[in-house]
Amino acid sequence: MKRRNTQSKQEILAILKSSKSALSQDVIQSKLPEINRATIYRVLNRFCEDGIVHRVTGDDGKQYFAICKNCKNKIHRHNHFHFRCVKCGTIDCLKNEIKIELPKGYTFENFNGVISGLCNKCT
Questions:
Q1: Please, what sign has the CA dihedral across residues 59, 104, 80, 30?
Q2: Which of 79, 93, 110, 115 yields a CA-CA distance of 20 to 30 A from 48?
Q3: pLDDT in tens, 22-69
Q4: Residues in contact with 55: Cβ distance below 8 Å, sequence separation at least 6, in sequence order
Q5: Is the Cβ–Cβ distance between 25 and 44 less than 8 Å?
Q6: What is the pTM of this model?
Q7: Which CATH number goes with the domain that contains 14?
């Protein structure tokens, strides 16, 4: 389905592309106070549906959104862990993919793995 390219979408995408780590909706909102919360969530969810970004549910229960710079596919269904710094709050995609072996008859759709600790800037 073709989606309209709105100013809000362009601004949210620019913030995600310029970020070195995954961002939560509230961080994006703080950078774009003129865009309401519901619009930001709607745009982020559509980006996920369209394979532009992927969603990470952190060990803190928050949802974070990132453009995966290590991804070769448009659809983000690869298996990698994320690291959340408990001090500064950044979430980074870790490069190494992991192999998941499922029993016969099971189909893989999504993987969410988060490791938390201190990043190299906070240790």
A1: negative
A2: 115
A3: 999 999 999 999 999 999 999 999 998 888 888 888 888 899 998 865
A4: 44, 48, 63, 64, 65
A5: yes
A6: 0.77
A7: 1.10.10.10
Do residues 115 and 85 lie in contact, with contact meaning Cβ atoms separated by under 8 Å? no
Contacts of 97 (CB under 8 A, 6+ apart): 78, 79, 80
Q: Does residue 122 belong to any structural domain of this protein?
A: no
Domain for residue 123, yes or no? Answer: no
Residue with tokens 């949802």: 63
Q: Long-range pairs for 117-121 at CB < 8 Å and ≥24 separation?
A: 117/83, 117/85, 117/86, 118/85, 118/86, 118/87, 119/83, 119/85, 119/87, 119/88, 119/90, 119/92, 121/85, 121/88
